[in-house]
Fold these 2 entries.
Entry 1:
Amino acid sequence: MTQAELDQLQKKALEQFKSGQPLFGKDGAFAPMLKQFLEAALQAEMEDHLSDQQRQAGNKRNGKGAKTIKSAEGTFQIETPQDRQISFSPQIIKKRETILANNLADKIIGLYGLGMSLRDISSHIREMYDSEISHTVLSEITDRIIPEVKAWQNRPLEPVYCIVWLDAMHYKVR
């Protein structure tokens, strides 16, 4: 990041902070920093991948590829590094992953577990990631948890459970 870009980022962040606008999110001042962070992390992963043994075997960098990522901060393009032997498999943003979410399927299962309908989950994901997920895909994901929920609902209960009741009284003392 050049000094001019850094100054402009600082100015935009200060203006948004003074006006009460959020600094993060789609139009936030810090949204471009996510792109730079991801690209730097991918470069570091590539450096780690191209150890001395890999380089001696003839594996070297082989340019960069463009990838469109959807996140809560909006849609943006990043450059992913590539190697000659195509053995680099990034962990931060995996191959063929376009939505930046920590385990989107786990989030869908969590929303379903909270009682949201498939339509609510679909509209929630559309709001957050600007991406459509069909009801068929959602059904396939949520069908994985139904046997676990049924097993939990039909589990044997203990005849007696211990309950601890705590109470407190607060007094102002000067």
Entry 2:
Amino acid sequence: MSELGEQLKQARINKKMSLEEVQELTKIQKRYLESIEEGEFDKLPGSFYTKAFVKSYAEAVGLNYDVLLEEYGHELPKLPQTVESFPPRRSRASIPSPPSGKFLSALSGILIFLIIIGIFAVIWMVSINKNNDAGKDNIREDEQGVEVKQNENALTERETEKSVDEKSVDKESNENKQDDDGEETHAPSGDGKIELASTSGDTSNFILSETDQFHVAFSFTGDSWLKIQDGSGKTVINQGFSNGQEKTFDFSKVSDVRIRIGNTSNMKMEVNGEQIELPSGIAAQTVKIHLQK
């Protein structure tokens, strides 16, 4: 057990509070509270949320979070550092050497030889086609008399079948129309599962799991504002929006994002196609999402 977890647990015991009561106050799941007390921070949903969970726990049991952080901050996991990679330098294109005279002479001889063979092949194919056409003409004359009689019989049969087929088509079209009218279409749901992990004040923490896709879409019905940062603190966007505007982001290459919304009542937010429900009555809110890979 870590010293930080021991301090939190002892403060909870002194206040005669159970883990269930702390869970009710902080909206943090009990299994995460147990992991904090045991110092098993690797079981929390990423280092992005660790400090937020510890702060909420400390406030719930009456401890000063800043004092705890100064004394036991070394026990908490560090945020991952992003390293920018630079593209390799392009190598200078090598200039091919001109072909030699002997090679050109050999290539010319090969081309002339191929042309001669091609001419003979064309002459041979033309002569064969003439012989085949003459034989086919004789066969066609014999077959034409048989085909005329067969066509007359087939015409009578088609007229009989046509009336039957028209009735069948009308019946099938009516049935298909009824089936189409009764079918319901369902839009495909978003990939993965989005789950609310905790809520503290105007901040909601979500966990996205069972997927490698991380798409966030916004649609606005009035004036609002967005500020989005990734897990390293880099600002992705800081911009105002108005009625009718839409914006979509692909965060599949990062694990954590922090979204600050200026006016939640004038916008709709979706993660992988699933709408996110935020607490009502709070105009400006913060949404943190962790992609659990």
